[in-house]
Q: What sequence folds into this?
């Protein structure tokens, strides 16, 4: 592997855009985490109805993207990496 030390010169405006993009991405990650927590709470409150449990099992059988599980009366959502 080549020596990776060195330097790069880019315009300041490009650097600031790159830094802002990183900040925006971090905010979006945090927002997605918060939304998933709220979604888990909502679904957990719906679990009091047995039909919803049956629907979750049916959903899990149809999807390869995520699995829902009921743990201590709360929904746990696990995304499946491919």
A:
């Amino acid at each position: 592997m080549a020596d990776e030390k060195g330097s790069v010169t880019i315009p300041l405006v490009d650097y600031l855009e790159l830094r802002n993009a990183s900040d925006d991405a971090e905010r979006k990650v945090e927002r997605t985490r918060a939304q998933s927590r709220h979604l888990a709470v909502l679904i957990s409150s719906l679990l009091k109805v047995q039909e919803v449990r049956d629907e979750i099992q049916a959903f899990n059988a149809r999807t390869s993207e995520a699995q829902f599980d009921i743990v201590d009366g709360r929904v746990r959502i696990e995304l499946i990496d491919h």
